[in-house]
Every structure is written in structure tokens, then in C-alpha cells.
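agent> Task received from the user: take the single chain below, predict its 3D structure, and emit C-alpha cells. No templates, no multimer pairing.
agent> Plan: (1) validate residues, (2) run structure prediction, (3) serialize to C-alpha cells, (4) report one or two observations.
agent> Step 1 OK, no nonstandard residues flagged.
tool_call: predict_structure(input=
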Amino acid sequence: MVALGVLLHTIGGFAAGTFYVPLRKIKGWAWESGWLVNGIFSWLIAPLVVASMVVPNLAELLAAIPWSAMAWTYFFGLLWGIGGLTFGLSCRYLGVSLGGSVALGFCAFFGTIVPPIYDGEFLALLKSASGLVMLFGLAVCLIGIGFCGVAGMAKERDLATPNQQENQHEFHFLKGVLVALFAGLMSACMSFAFRAGASIAELSTQHGVADLWKNTPVLVVILAGGFTTNALWCIFLNVKNRSAGDYLGKTEGNAKRNYLLAAIAGVTWYLQFMFYGMGSTKMGRYDFSSWTLHMAFIIIFSNLWGIRLGEWEGTRARTRQLVITGIVVVFFSTIIVGISNYLGTTSTGH
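)
tool_result: status=success, residues=350
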């Protein structure tokens, strides 16, 4: 059961760590134009299509959701949307690998620790072997993020010459870290949104939705909130920067190609939470660890993509060693989290 959950989170992390790659290839469009088209596919089209396939009567189910559950889930989706928006900016200023690592490190920390504190279960974690191992795994994850952060500062020093900066002109460490910190704080609201939507998931099973897919309708509500935040900001930037012509092919970019790349990015992005929702149903008693696993796997794959895309070219060997060490340490933290889940399930007799 737990092993399947970890596998599903791994697939989701790969999707999340990969989605920004197609967006980097969009040419001739303003950033906000590509981000909005990506959002339409990732936060509206894909969730509704998948939900329509796995929910017997989606419209009836959505109409039956209690107002309070709908409102709170949507509200946390709005807050998460701010994090998603600034996450994109952190990748823009720091690159796929470093931007993802710093933002998601903070996101993993707050998204994992705050729920048990809010529920009054934190002290109970300190009294159980599985809980202590879980907290140790989280600490190891943060250490890995620290290595990635040090590597980022070293990268900025290594790229100090004009020739080396030519291909990475948008790299700005201080600005990127501040954006990533805020992105991590706000992105943690996705964890709270799933908790707020727990009653929606329960209602889904009552409407005949398989347990593996019970979080799919929850995602429809959460991502609608996230789309609202991002769409408003992108439209504002379109007006401010006079970039609305991108959608009509009135700029230098190849509109058809850019639409396709943004659509691929959007669908790929959605897959992360489709698999996250599936994986969380298999994590047992320590489902709150799902968020840590999800963040850790995103960090691993985004860093691997960053290396593959040459984001660390022009840096010293020591700098590259630091980021690789960070990846290894984060991966090790996921193994610790898996052990804590095993201890938790065996202690409860599952």
C-alpha cells in the first residue's frame, strides 16, 4: 500500500519537475501570455476532462457539495494560486533547478508541519517512533535544500563575468530567493486545500467514485481558485505590458507553436496533482507526509532537468558538486519518510 503511494508520488513529482521545460521554449510571447494559456489547460481543462471520465455524474456531485466545504477549498485554492504564480517567477529568476528547490523546500516544510500542529497532533508525533523518524526525514530534506541554496549563491559568483551571464541574463539570486520564499509559503496552502476538501472526497465515494479517484473532484474546486488568482494577474500584465496581441498572433512569436507548448506544459503540470491525489489515498495513517514526498520528488526531478538543460554550465566543479549533494540528500530524506510510513502502518496493525 505505502510502496504504491510512494511510486505514485514519484510520477507526480516527475510531472511537476518537468512542466516548466516546454514553457522555456516559448518564443516571442510575454511571460504572462504563456503562463495564462498554460493555466487554462492545467487548472481548467485537464481537471474537468479527467473528472468527467472518473466521476459518474460530475455536475450532480459538484451541486451536492456543501457551501462551506466548497468555499474553504476554493479559498485555499486562491491562496495556493498566488504561490503557483510566484513559483513560475522563481523559476524565471533562478532557473528550473534552483528556483524549484528553494521554493519547494519551504513549501514542504510548512505544508507538512502546520497541519499536525493545527490538529494538536504534533506532541503525539514526538512520542512515537514513526513520528520522530518522520520529523527527522523532514529535517534531512531541509538540509538538502540548504545545499541547493549554497550552490545557488556559488553559481551567482561563478557567473559574475559578462560572457558567462550572456545565456542566463535573467538569473538574479536575491530577487529569486525572495520570490521563492513567498512562493513556498503560499504554495503550502495546497496541503490545506486538500484537507478542507476532505468532505468533498468523502462525498465523491458516496456518489460511486472509486477510492483511488476520490480527490479528483477536490482538485476541480482547488484549481478553479488557483486559476482565478493567476488569470487576474496575467490579464493585468497583458494590459500593462500591451502583450494581449500574443494570443492573436500579432507578435513575432509563432502563435500555434506557443499554444502547443503551453498546452503540453499545462497538461503535464496537472498530472502532478492527479498522481498526488491518487498517491495520498495509499499513504495510510501518515497521509500528511504526502506533501513532503511530493515536494521532495519535484525538487529531485527539477534539479535533474536543470542539469540536463545546462543551467549549471560555466560554474566550477565545486558548485556542481554542491547541487548534486543537495539532490542526493533530498532523495535520502524521501527514503526516511518511507521508513516512517512503514513504522506507522505496522504499529497500527495494517
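agent> Step 4: summary for the user.
The radius of gyration is 20 Å.
agent> Done.
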